[in-house]
Design brief:
Elements lengths: L1 E2 L2 H5 L42 H12 L18 E7 L3 H16 L5 E3 L7 E6 L1 H7 L3 E7 L7 H4 L16 E6 L4 H16 L24 H10 L10 H15 L16 H11 L5 H18 L4 H14 L4 H16 L5 H17 L3 H9 L2 H6 L3 H17 L3 H18 L3 H12 L7
Parallel strand pairs: 2-3, 2-4, 4-6
Antiparallel strand pairs: 1-5, 5-6
Length: 452
Amino acid sequence: MRRVILPICLMLGACVPGPPTEPPTRAATQQPTMLQSMRTFSAPKPLPPIRSNTDIARDFLELSFQLESGRTLPRFSRFEGPVSIRVTGNPPPSLMSDLNRLVHRLRTEAGIDIARVRGESANITIEAVPRSEIRRHLPKAACFVVPNISRLSQYRAARHSRLTNWSLLTHREKIAIFLPNDASPQEVRDCLHEELAQALGPLNDLYHLPDSVFNDDNVHTVLTGFDMLILRAYYAPELRSGMTRGQVAARLPAILARLNPRGETLAPRPASSTPRAWINAIQTALGPGARHTQRMSAASEALRIAQTAGWRDHRRAFSHFAMGRLTQASDPNYAHDHFLMADRFYRMTPGTDLHRAYTGSQLAAYAISQGRGDVALEIIARHLATAERHENAALLATLMMLRAEALDLTGRVAEAQAVRLDSVGWARYGFGADWAVRAKLREIASLSPLKG
């Protein structure tokens, strides 16, 4: 299930405002009067995992034999034979092209025999419905995946039955994915990647994975090189549905040696488990439904746990990031210190370039608010290519809008306007509706001492 954490992490201020009902402010005077057409990414550029096969085997077993709730799965399950996939409901225009790209990647990178079909039935049914329908069933979910049904209308009756119990599944034949059809194109695509990956493969998420969509921090939103390797191993001919953990563990070393020979030459790195208390604290701090005082208390608890555990990886960094996010409106200097700490720990953890790009957007925003355009430009330059490589249009557009404000501060007004105009095409994919794009432009413009 995809939790609504990432949209909050993306924001530079509070929540994105609704459609404007007041006269435009001075900060909005330099917005493009005509929004550019939506831009999309071309060929994917996933990076291969750089870690020991011993570590990957450990992660594979934790992902495959446990649910997000912590419940153990007794048997390995997957689809056996070709996998068919169809789309129903009222899909937005962007869904079909993003699905076609993802199916192609699954075939070529993960080696899965999967294809779209137009018939009345398929192994995997993707139903596109209004966000309100999803929230009516699961208030905290943006999208979700369920076994053995094919329509959302079936879910309420089947929710607590043996039919939809993942722990009783030993062979996958029919799975439904429910996506919002009224979200931004990027949010729909992100849901598609995460939920289809779980429909096909592991059902668990692990916070200690820095380079994977199988992580509830939702930093990575399209399948990574690590994820494709996990899925390729998941559908290796040496494995089959119904195997026990011990049986899968016995076959994994040979499978990974064949699929990832580089991993045989790298030394293992120990990974500590992530306490449920830290997970709960992070979800309270950055997820929906909590009051600000509850969020602050939860973020403080997450940071305390990370410090007590002696973490020096991306989990420690994310704890500082959460604290920075929650305090930047009330105490920008204090928040800035936490973002600097987050960046420090991300630098110490391989595979966290995208995490650093998120943090960099916050550091650049602070520099702009202080009138230090040259500092902001230096920070932003380090992260633009990362956002593009990871196909994160919302982050890319945010960085470009920040760059435009920084250029304005340094007197490069014509260049700023060109960058701002170029950012809009990415923003339309990342944020969706025109009002949301304009709101993001206003929000970032208001950071500048020239316009705030």
